[in-house]
Amino acid sequence: MKKVILLLILIISFISCKDFKKGVEDGYNAAQEEAELKKTEVKLYTLDGGNVLVNKLEIFAQDDAFKGQSKTFADAFYIVEHPNGRLLWDAGLAEGLVGQEPFTTPNGAFTVSRKDSIVSQLKALNLTPKDFNYIALSHSHFDHTGSASKFSEATWLVQESEYNFITSDEQKKGDNYPPIATLTKVKKLNGDHDVFGDGTVIIKSMPGHTPGHQVLYLNLAEAGSILLTGDLYHLQENRDNRGVPSFNFNVDQTLKSMDAFEAFAKETNAKVYIQHSVEDFNKLPKYPKFLK
Description:
The protein is an alpha/beta fold. The chain has two domains: 1-39; 42-283, 4-Layer Sandwich (Metallo-beta-lactamase, Chain A), CATH 3.60.15. 30% of the residues lie in helices and 24% in strands. The chain is built from eight helices and 13 strands. It has helices at residues 2-39, 118-123, 142-145, 160-166, 169-172, 236-241, 251-268, 278-283, and strands at residues 43-54, 71-82, 85-89, 103-104, 110-113, 134-136, 155-159, 186-189, 193-194, 201-205, 214-220, 224-228, 271-273. The strands form two sheets. The protein has an eight-stranded mixed beta sheet with strand order 4-5-1-2-3-6-7-8. A five-stranded mixed beta sheet has the order 9-10-11-12-13, covered by helices on one side. Helix 3 (142-145) links the parallel strand 6 (134-136) and strand 7 (155-159). The longest helix is centred in the first third of the chain and has 38 residues, at 2-39. The radius of gyration is 25 Å and the shape is globular.
């Protein structure tokens, strides 16, 4: 009888140990799954970098497609939240416009305005420019570089061709250079770049609008795959008709970039957001409340 009882005790102990081990393994696997999930919890927030009234919309075509038309463009900047860091994508219009009357450029093509500064908007979110690991600009035109100078402690992710262009002696004489002059922590890119190394935030080289123009691919936790166009497209009509603005750096490069962009969008099943589209601006999530 004693032998039977002892045997039962051993069996129960063995089962208990096995169950305990399984519980530990299940807990470990759950922790692993949670860690993997957190890796991909990428979020995007859209903030207001100003407005651009295009008085001469015809400059956004090689022909007379928009002759005599005008249109209001959105001009956003974007916060990309990743478990391993934070990226600012584009920087809106010049900070000096805040609190001023709308300004019309000397050629009469644009009337620009900005209601609020980037520092003020970030403060409302419990953030400062020092909270950003990276800054990346789709390109170095004035309506995308406006607040860039505030992010001097962030690493600037820029195509080498764009860097060489905007830091040339000729460009230093113009209005596009000053906002990026303080960005001394530079990572020069030559093609696509996986920002955090996990495929969720990828800068895609799409030259043509400028020598080193780039777009942004995101695999978001809630919205899935999306693409921010930079200025590859300014209007839905540009995308529908492969329309190239008259002032683009290189038309052939632009058309090749459009082909590459559309192929990639199809491959990833990504939703496309045209950055200057007011309609697309209104679709994207706004104003998060970050907790430090």
